[in-house]
User: What shape does this take?
Amino acid sequence: MLIVHRGAQPSVDATAYVAPNAVLCGDVEVGPEARILFGAVLTAEDGRVVVGARTVVMENALVRGRLRTPAILGDDVLVGPHAHVNGAVVEDGAFLATGAAVFPGAVVGARSEVRIRAVVHVNSKLAPDMTVPIGWIAAGDPAQLFSPDRHDELWAVQEPLDFPGTVYGLARDATARERMTRQSAWFGAHLGDAAVS
Assistant: This one.
């Protein structure tokens, strides 16, 4: 389904494939020979989504573009089932496995691998040809790798990356009501959406 959002309509190259139950919403550009599979959602909230040549976004993956951090998938990228790319750059030839998550402001370097359920944290930069092991977290610029049991060490790198400021535009001590009022208004922009006929 193609949806007009904030006055922008998706653009799909004639050689690309978009599954009938995939959703492309707003300023989404799908390049040549790209494949958007069943249940995938590519939504340009208030920023672009660009999908490069021969890139495959697999079943039930989410790719979200943001104003300050558009979602850019390079050429020859694989975004695995249930993966989540939120306002991040994934460079040419990178591989995101099932359930991987890449957060706003992050960069996944060319030919890198983010394996099953691994995370690249906000504002983190993964060098080319790097691998984030299954279930691990990459954080920092340049990114360091942390196993899930190293929370204190991870937090020392993660805290200054400013997740709440990057994602919500709010200080860490903002209340849930402040966060969700802002999120509700942001997603409220979908009230004016219309399917492309």
